[in-house]
Known about the structure:
Number of strands: 11
Largest sheet: 7 strands, mixed
Amino acid sequence: QVQLVESGGGLVQAGGSLRLSCAASGRTYSNFNMGWFRQAPGKERDFVSSISWNGGNIDYADSVKGRFTISRDNAKNTMYLQMNSLKPEDTAVYYCAAGSISSRSKGLYRYWGQGTQVTVSS
């Protein structure tokens, strides 16, 4: 079992930045591939970014490429999402997830956090 807790969300103006964190506990965190997803009201939970267990493979959704940066620190059992140049359309609940495969498919992630709200005002 892996427990995931997101933090760092909040309210920011368009063009601003936020850094999300995902702290993991339980089974060996460094064995898992990790991902960030987001869900806006009334919409599907969408892929944002993923990072492999050793950080060697990183993927971004086209909508965030060049603005968001994913990283992880296995010594601290923590994953990060640095979000710059935020836009109102980035407003959503952001979830971190852990799984055995680094993927854009949310169905392949076994463990999920409770989410953290990000609101970008125009």
